Amino acid sequence: MMHSMLDRRDFLRLGLAGVSVAGTYPLFLGKTAAAARQDGDPDDDRILVVLQLSGGNDGLSTVVPYADPAYGRARERLRVAEGDVLRIDGRVGLHPNWKDLKKVFDDGRMAIIQGVSYPNPTRSHFQAMDIWHAGDRDMVREGTGWLGRAVDSTCGNKPDPLLAVNLGKAVPRALIGKVSQPASFGGGGGFGARGKRDRDGDAGDDASPEMKASRPLGQIDFLQRVAIDGRRSAAVIQKATQSYRPSADYPAGNRLAADLRAVAGLIAGKLPTRVYYVSLGGFDTHANQRGTHDNLMRVVSTGVSAFLADLSAQGLLDRVLVLAFSEFGRRVKENASGGTDHGVAAPMFLIGGKVAGGLHGEHPSLTELAGGDLAMKVDFRQVYATVLDGWLGIDSGKILGAKRDPLPLLQGKRGRVRAF
Amino acid sequence: MRTYAAIFALFLAAAAGRGGLRADGGEQPGVLPALKPEAFDRAAAAHLLNRAGFGGTPEEIEKLHALGLERAIENLLDPAGTDPLPPFQPTVSEPLDGRSLAGLSKEERQKKNRERRMADQRQLQELRAWWMRRMTLTSRPLEEKMALFWHGHFATSQREVQNSYHMFLQNRTLRTHALGSFKRLVLEIAQDPAMLRYLNNNRNVKSAPNENFARELLELFTLGIGNYSEQDIKEAARALTGWTLRGNEFFFAQRQHDSGEKSFLGRKGDFDGKDIMDIVFEQPAAASFIVRKLFVFFAHDDPPPEAIEALARAFRSSGFELRPVLRRLFTSAEFYSARSRGTRIKSPVELVVGTLKLLKIDPGDAPACAAAAGQMGQEIFLPPNVKGWEGGRAWVSTSTLSDRYRFVRPLLAVESPPGRPRAARTGEKARPERKPTVERSTVQKPDVEEPSEKKDATEKPAPSEDENDKAEKKKRARLLDGAARRMPHWDPQRVSQEILGERAASLRAEEAVERAAAHFLVVPLSAETRGELTAAYGKGSERNRLAELILGITSTPEYQVH
Predict the structure, then answer these.
(1) Fewest CB atoms less than 10 Å from the CB: which of A208, A210, A253, B231?
(2) Would you say B125 and B472 are in contact if contact means Cβ atoms under 8 Å apart?
């Protein structure tokens, strides 16, 4: 009785009585998770950081097909000037504000997968996000997410809530499993933010939908469970982030950078976490795209590259894989409001120390469109499968409901990306 | 032809409306059976008040119960008299136009724009505080609850609109039509300045149609996915071209309107926006979509198909008037069923407003209450996206649950332990002379919240959160004047009277806990928590044991549901 009283009062004093709560933190849970992995297994310490760009990132302004005349014709007002593009080859280049990430690319640490989508795409933010989170259109109704199911598969009946950590208030469906639920903290730069909130750095709200999963637990049980998870995770997370001194400079006033800094702190703090989920919103640029998107590109580039530099300086980069995606790209032809409407195929990015860097796949044609949109070249489920099998060491067939051919996106895996 | 149909529909609605328990529009009562009047006990009345309003004290519940089921519902649907609360008085409304900026230097113009932005932000804070107060004190709770529902349904955010006056106008529109004609409401929203800007229909022109509003009109506002095609969206967008705003009003720009023939949901014609809406309402989905959303919002998230069918039929036959549907819903046995009781997780606004009501606190114009709800994930006038708030378990994460447990503390002005800034950004501390200080007991009781004497390195607050709090406080201080910084506070005597009764001092711990549980909860308190609270109350000092008890009860899973 005394034990639980202590728990509850200490939970109310979140962050204060770190010692007492940490004392009740069931260390055995962390050990159980470790025991589930074999000793000396190279996948043991691998971490996935998912970066969700919410709203539909304009792929054409990110990986720019500058040399294609059709590009200039379609994007009269919005085009990125050929002189400004950071060239990769004679056909495509990166957005000018991706200077830092261009260096990452040149160092061979970024894989750009072009033309990613899925069959019968939807242009609804919410449906599309559900599909990306669920990992498959057919799994949407089921209520769980691809990473939630992945965590389920590694930890039996007693999932450690720290195996997946979400930086944000609401829980993204991607992390919800039949059994497991992630720990959620901070987000939006509110956790480990440095300096005052810079309005320019405020890239807009997170447009990602969070689905409530259908669960067998009654409401009270569910709430109890979250409360217990919270109590246990909070102290550990607070401790790890409080004492963290990063080995790189993170840009001030950048909410994404602040979130990634917190992630770096948790990684350095040796948490058992294998999946981190970070979101950045504001990409739904129906109007006045130039200013907004340019700014978002800067936020992403400076934030992610600082994160990588930080990890690299601590010798952690080889253990981390960043997966960046958006729920769809945008239409080829700009609209009359200086923006673009919802589209389909767009690039996906894998960044990290063990990535098979470079351009993968083909850039979709700007003239042979599918309903006015870029045609799909690669199915995102293949990228998921690659990450699950090749990086996390989890059987993707079970998670995604079907076996998918992996792509040679990680070092040590051979083969070519065959475009669709 | 349409007018006759409208008049007939009105007649039907009126006739059905007088029926109360009688099924509307000639429905078979068996499909969605009504609750037996004698089953409308205190618990049922509490349930009704919690769902159809923002809850209330046992006294308020008893008043509703005494009316009986039928009259209680009429009282909610059509409250007598006007609300004594004053309407919001906007001070910033006229846009900064070319004339007021003419002849000024660049710096002066920038300064004026900055001032305008700040004034606008200040007005939004005032609007948020005004609405929270209204929800707390109104004598028309269902109207406010519906306004909140519509705000989440026709979600529009100041972040994009950048005009607090327009947000005020939209809020007023939502309230005016909250319980009336849904058809009318949809039209009003399509012509609402804030919405026109939020979903870019103000840029929807013949030469380059912008589909944003048309898409969400069909997907989120009226029909739902699967009941229209991408082509329908395009055609609807064409029909809505030229619907824009001028200053603070809707304006139809004839020259920007595409008056060509459109093909929409199987119909052909040179449709304009109104025509599109008429066609939308001819679709079967138009009735079931909204009705389902209402059911999930008010009752539970697993509606029986027959219930939705019955409610949809009532909705359609009443000409899409909301009162008959709500009457049917609140009268139904399903609404009071076990599946519906104590199974809904309160939204942050409901949690905050409900708590203010139970503690008989008038939030005044303090921005702290809206801020508290925002901290928990529901910032009014700033929904995360056009889909509004997901609701249900999406309100609860390890992060928000901790905020939900802790937000009552500042209302009770319980001293935070030293070295730690105000828990959650729920506002500034109450001024010392008003705050009933909590006795700093030196007894080492882990169950009483008190400043710890231990020198513990981990007690230092995370420096980043400190900076954040400081930045937030500075920002708020800049925007608000002294009066608005007041923290609403409770009247301990009054609340003690309300919860514990006259003989509060002599109550046994078990009784005190029982009364508090009856006051705050709709589900039974777990034995474990009951034991903890009883022990704590028995050992606490008279001065702060009620505050501790309230804090204890409101930081439970049981308090999160209603």
Answers:
(1) B231
(2) no
Name the residue among B161, B248, B239, B179 with its Cα closest to residue B205: B239
Q: Which residue has the higher pLDDT, A17 or A407?
A: A407
The domain limits of chain A are 2-12+47-400
What's the rounded Cα separation, in Å, for the pair B468 and B462? Answer: 10
Six-digit token string for A271: 């948490």
Asked if A404 is an interface residue toward chain B (Cβ–Cβ < 8 A), one would say: no
Provide the 3-class DSSP secondary structure of residue A190.
coil
The reply to whether A190 touches chain B by the CB within 8 Å rule is yes
**For tokens 């204060």, what's the residue?**
A16
Instruction: List the domain boundaries for chain B.
Output: 2-83+108-336, 346-414+466-488, 492-560
Structure letter (DSSP) for residue B435: S
Q: Is B348 left (phi over 0), alpha (psi -120 to 50) or beta?
A: alpha
pLDDT exceeds 70 at position A348: yes
CA distances from B360 to A154, B409, B501 (A): 50, 15, 15
Asked which of A93-107, A110-124, A225-239, B318-332 is least confident by mean pLDDT, the reply is: A225-239
Residues of chain A contacting residue B477, judged by C-beta atoms under 8 Å apart: none
The structure tokens listed for B426 are 């729920």
Query: What is the model's pLDDT at position B141?
Result: 96
CA B345-B347-B349 angle, to 5 degrees, is 150
List CB contacts of B153: < 8 A, sequence separation 6 or more. Answer: B220, B221, B293, B388
Helix, strand or coil, per DSSP, at residue A136: coil
pTM reported for the whole predicted model: 0.75
Confidence of residue B83 (pLDDT cuts 50, 70, 90): confident
Looking at domain A2-12+47-400, its CATH class is alpha beta
- Work out the average pLDDT over B239-249: 96
pLDDT at A5 over 60: no
Instruction: Tell me what pLDDT residue A108 has.
Output: 96
Nearest Cα neighbor of A97 from A56, A132, A64, A124 is A64
Say if B466 is an interface residue toward chain A (CB within 8 Å): no
Residues in chain B: 562
On the question of pLDDT at B12 being above 60, the answer is no
Q: Is B262 left (phi over 0), alpha (psi -120 to 50) or beta?
A: beta
- Give Dmax (Cα) for chain A: 73
pLDDT beyond 60 at A40: no
CB-nearest partner of A223 from B384, B396, B465? B396
Cβ burial of B149 (10 Å; 0-12, 13-18, 19+) is: middle
Confidence band of B375 (pLDDT split at 50, 70, 90): confident
CA–CA–CA angle B531, B535, B536 (5° rounding): 115
Within its chain, how far is the Cα of B387 from the centroid?
14
Between strands A358-360 and B243-246, the pairing is unpaired
Q: Would you tell me which residues 272-291 of chain A have a C-beta closer than 8 angstroms to some C-beta of chain B?
A: 281, 286-287
Q: What distances in angstroms separate CA B183 from CA A72, B168, B276, one per listed residue?
A: 44, 21, 12
Could you tell me the two tokens for A272? 């058992």
* Backbone dihedral angles phi then psi of residue B73, each to the nearest 5 degrees: -70, -40
Q: Per mean pLDDT, which range of A247-261, A402-416, B249-263 is the poorest?
A: A402-416
In b/e form, how buried is each residue of B360-384, taking b as 16+ CB within 10 angstroms? Answer: ebebbbbbbbbbbbbbbbbbbbbbb
Provide the residue type at B341 as one letter: R
Percentage of the residues of chain B whose pLDDT score is greater than 90: 65
Strand order in the sheet with A86-87: A63-64, A93-94, A86-87
Provide the 3-class DSSP secondary structure of residue B380: coil
Residue in chain B closest to A55 (alpha carbons) equals B385
List, in order, residues 6 or more apart from A35 with CB less than 8 Å away. none
B400: chain A residues, CB-CB within 8 Å:
169-170, 184
